Amino acid sequence: MDRDTFHYTKLLKVPSSLALNTARDGASTTSLGNLFQCFITVTVMQVVKEQIMRALTTKPSSLDQFKSKLQNLSYTEILKIRQSERMNQEDFQSRPILELKEKIQPEILELIKQQRLNRLVEGTCFRKLNSRRRQDKFWYCRLSPNHKVLHYGDLEESPQGEVPHDSLQDKLPVADIKAVVTGKDCPHMKEKGALKQNKEVLELAFSILYDSSGQLNFIAPDKHEYCVWTDGLNALLGKDMLSDLTRNDLDTLLSMEIKLRLLDLENIQIPDAPPPIPKEPSNYDFVYDCN
């Protein structure tokens, strides 16, 4: 027997011994009563195939290195990898999962909405732009706890915490708000020379339009506050929250909720379609007539 034939024979022995080890690992990770269910859910040959394919993707340089990779990819390890990939790749495209997402998405959006409104109740300190475009003055705005009035007023300096409602001189009823505009649509961004300033200021600008010509102009301190306030104001007006922050929060919270609800289905394959409806019975003698 030449050297190549010898190594080829050894290579062919690897899958058979691997299958035995995988079956043994599978049996050790489940009770005897659930052993049959284990082999239905994840068959030995499917796991062996995945072990070999994953080991080959590492491009082992020798047979011993290949066998070493296979030993590290035990049955339990394969299950962990599958679960991790399923969680990280967000590959929940089966119809039951999509329907679950549609069902819980309104709850998540309501949670985000309440968080935005709570932040508006806490309030934020904004900088004022004077005629020379210098941000050297401060003003504070916050929503009343009943979500019906915006309180705002000028400040001498940046506050160290929340500013009480009674110290803010001006009020704007939420019912009087006609629209919320952002960026280039803001009145204070349309003024002569305003659009020539840096892009950051333009992206942080938003305005509240009320009555026939009333306006309340904002320059948010950062992108996060900009998203919080535009989301909160749109929520007060009954409109959709469309900021990047809302999309990110929705994706994160929706993903977490889906994962939590799927914990009980670990290692159980979710079917793409519901089970078939059984045929109608030959008679309905078993039905009790209450009349």
UniProtKB/TrEMBL annotation:
Coiled coil: none annotated. It comes from the Eukaryota. This is Engulfment and cell motility protein 1-like protein. InterPro entries: PH-like_dom_sf, PH_domain. Residues 112-238 form the PH domain. It holds the Pfam family PH_12.
